[in-house]
Design goal:
7 helices, mainly alpha, globular
C-alpha cells in the first residue's frame, strides 16, 4: 500500500481501492448514487483507478453488468482506461451500457 496525503472520505476510498477486495469495491460503489455530489463521484472515479487486485477487478466487472446505471458508467470508464475493451464491448452488446459509455475514455 502506498502512503498518500489524502484524509477524510477520499483517503478512506483510496485505502479501500488499494486493498481492492470484493468488499472494498462494494464499499466504494455504494458511494455512487443518484444524489451523490460531484465531489464524491470524482473521489470514487479516482479511487477506482487504483484498484489492481484481481478480486476487485472481477467485482467491477460484476458491477459493469449488474450495477445501477451510474455504477455501470463508472465501471465502463474503469475498463476503458485499462484498455480492457473486450469487457466493455460485451457490456455494450448485452445492452448494459450505451454507445457513449462504451466509447468514453
Amino acid at each position: 500500500m502506498t502512503i498518500h496525503k489524502f484524509t477524510g472520505k477520499l483517503g478512506e476510498l483510496i485505502e479501500r481501492a488499494e486493498h481492492g477486495s470484493e468488499l472494498d469495491v462494494d464499499f466504494i460503489m455504494t458511494h455512487l448514487m443518484k444524489d451523490s455530489s460531484l465531489a464524491m463521484t470524482r473521489f470514487v472515479d479516482y479511487a477506482l483507478g487504483l484498484v489492481e487486485n484481481p478480486n476487485g477487478i472481477n467485482r467491477l466487472e460484476y458491477y459493469l453488468f449488474n450495477g445501477t446505471l451510474m455504477q455501470r458508467n463508472y465501471c465502463s470508464l474503469f475498463f476503458n482506461r485499462r484498455q480492457d475493451y473486450d469487457i466493455v464491448q460485451r457490456a455494450y452488446k448485452a445492452g448494459r451500457i450505451d454507445e457513449i459509455q462504451a466509447f468514453a475514455r
